[in-house]
Amino acid sequence: MHRGLTIGDFSRITHLSVRTLRRYHEAGLLEPEEVDPYTGYRYYSTAQVPTAQVIRRFRELGMPLREIREVLATADPDARAALIGRHLARLEDELDRTRAAVTSLRRLLEPAVPPIEVELRVEPTTTVAAVRATIDLKEANAWYGGAMEEIDRALHTAGLTPSGPPGGLYGNELFTEERGDAVVFVPVADPPAAGRVHPFVIPAAELAVTVHRGPHDDIDVSYGALGTYVTEHTLAVAGPVRENYLVGPRDTDNPDAWRTEIGWPVFRTTG
Amino acid sequence: MHRGLTIGDFSRITHLSVRTLRRYHEAGLLEPEEVDPYTGYRYYSTAQVPTAQVIRRFRELGMPLREIREVLATADPDARAALIGRHLARLEDELDRTRAAVTSLRRLLEPAVPPIEVELRVEPTTTVAAVRATIDLKEANAWYGGAMEEIDRALHTAGLTPSGPPGGLYGNELFTEERGDAVVFVPVADPPAAGRVHPFVIPAAELAVTVHRGPHDDIDVSYGALGTYVTEHTLAVAGPVRENYLVGPRDTDNPDAWRTEIGWPVFRTTG
DNA sequence: GTCAGGGCTCCCCCAGGGGGAGGGTCAAAG
DNA sequence: CTTTGACCCTCCCCCTGGGGGAGCCCTGAC
Q1: Which of A3, A256, B107, B233 could hold A43 in an S-S bridge, CB 3.0 to 4.6 Å?
Q2: Chain B: closest CA distance from residue A228 (Å)
Q3: Nearest alpha-carbon partner for A244 in A187, A201, A171
Q4: In sequence order, what E strands does chain A have?
Q5: Which among A108, A92, A94 has a CA at the least distance from the CA of A219?
Q6: Residue with CA nearest C1' of nucleotide C25
Q7: What is the set of domains in chain A, with CATH numbers?
Q8: Cα separation of A6 and B165, whole Å?
Q9: Distance CA A171, CA A203 (A)
Q10: A250 backbone φψ class: left, alpha, beta (φ>0; ψ -120 to 50)
Q11: Residues A162-219 pLDDT 10s
């Protein structure tokens, strides 16, 4: 009786290991053309070779088996392209993160890392034009851009001039739960209301403040310095973190020139 | 009693999860400054924050914990740079593979994939100047370049002209075990011997032959077509695979113009 | 009929975590 | 000084995408 290729033959043709082929069978990714009901032997057909090779490519791209199965099950070319595009976008993201980590690592390992200076300062109440939302940490950058644009438009429409650099308030849970409240604002004496933009009052507070220099890839280092300062001075953190974009993407295209003031509201403990 | 930061405090400062910190402790990557022998409570110091951040960067680069520990334990800056450089090289490799997979995937998913033509042909005995070695599949490309260069020099020194395009012989175990015998050769009437270069006779054989067009990123597709052809014509493979580089990197910088002839020595089975 | 090579299932292992159970501790508030 | 709630501990199972190996059955060429 002439059956298809044994799993070993198929393995040699596709360069997928026998184990991997069995796993793909189990996962419903690549069902053998025929399975002998008595012996359990898997038999593949030569027509399945191209499918196996497509799977191999997707795996080389790190696509999870679930998604590969989804892609293969999707007949509609548009939907298929969308699934693939989504994964390619993820790859891009990952690449960006890798790039950021490389540059930031280089900076961290440089012998002459200047110590980060932290100072304690009392900030008065400020009125601002703000947009607030609950966001995921991942989408923070995109959200920030849109919100800032909207505030700019609102100020422009109202003919108002900012009284200081833009900034943001970030709830601490954003950093522990990857999701939380965020406010982006521009200080202005008499804030307008338009669309998502609303007047907002930032309360006075005692702040532990430092200035982060350069792109935000390694901003956690400055956060770490603040953490060190706060604990060493037996202070505690109260309320959302403040960032002031002294020099930011609106001012220069060179991220190395960016200056970000980070302020942690603190209070003294009996420690 | 004033002890260091609890694991929760340290987690908030470094943005590493509590679980992850415990794992790093267990792995000897980041030992807490103090561990209470009675309660098992871990206490960290603010001086450990920078270390934690360096670890975070390495992890974002996908460096295994073992290697991070190694890097942190290495005091000598040169040795340290070497370790890091090795990992960055691996990242580059991975990036190349990803790029290759993307282009190859695009090709595979293009609607108009021309069917691959396979023909059966008898190849006569050929004398060649060859370099042979047992290699890993991964290092095949680098090895190939060096060997080919050596053959070129030997022919040039001896004042000989190749009688055909260069080629290679690859034992089947190379593709199943990732390691095996390989021969790279240039056909020539009267082969010289110099260094690793030796005369060699490629035996006559009946070949199933196809021509692969373009870069080698998706050469396994052509191999798959050969596999399909061979099994559908109830043939069997005997001996190492042959590749002839009709148009290769020596001829053009445009990989899309490459032409690689792949020949599988076959014999008829009773099927 | 024999026998090697190859197929089958099942279980354990890896990294680098996440989730949760069950129980002990710490520190601020009453 | 006790309570209480937040925090910490260990231990176990889960995930993905495989690899290694044990123990047993099947196939096919001679």
Answers
A1: A3
A2: 5
A3: A187
A4: 5-6, 34-35, 42-44, 119-123, 126-136, 167-170, 179-187, 198-202, 205-213, 235-237, 241-247, 259-268
A5: A108
A6: B39
A7: 5-73 (1.10.1660.10), 119-268 (3.20.80.10)
A8: 36
A9: 15
A10: alpha
A11: 999 999 998 776 666 667 788 999 999 999 998 999 999 999 988 999 999 988 888 8
The Cα-based distances of B234 to A20, B123, B164, B170 in angstroms read 26, 20, 31, 22
pLDDT, chain A, mean: 88
Sequence-ordered list of residues with C-beta below 8 angstroms from that of A225, at least 6 positions apart, any chain: A116, A118, A210, B49
Residue A1: its pLDDT value, please?
46
Q: What is the pLDDT of residues B34-62, one digit of tens each?
A: 999 999 999 999 999 989 999 999 999 99
Q: Which two tokens stand for residue A152?
A: 């700019």
Token couple for B105: 């995937």
Rg (CA), chain B: 27
What is the identity of the amino acid at B55? I
Å between A118 CA and nearest CA of chain B: 14
The pLDDT of residue A234 is above 80 = no
Rounded to a whole number, what is the largest CA-CA distance in chain B? 88
B9, closest nucleotide (Cα–C1'): D7
Q: Cα separation of B66 and B73, whole Å?
A: 11
Give A62's contacts in chain B (Cβ within 8 Å). Answer: 98
CB-CB contact of B207 with B122 (8 Å): yes
B221-239 pLDDT tens trace: 888 888 888 878 877 777 7
Contacts of A175 in chain B (CB under 8 A): 12, 15
Residue A7 approaches strand C within 7 Å at CB: yes
Half-sphere exposure for A50 (CA within 13 Å, toward CB): 12
d(CA B238, CA B223): 15
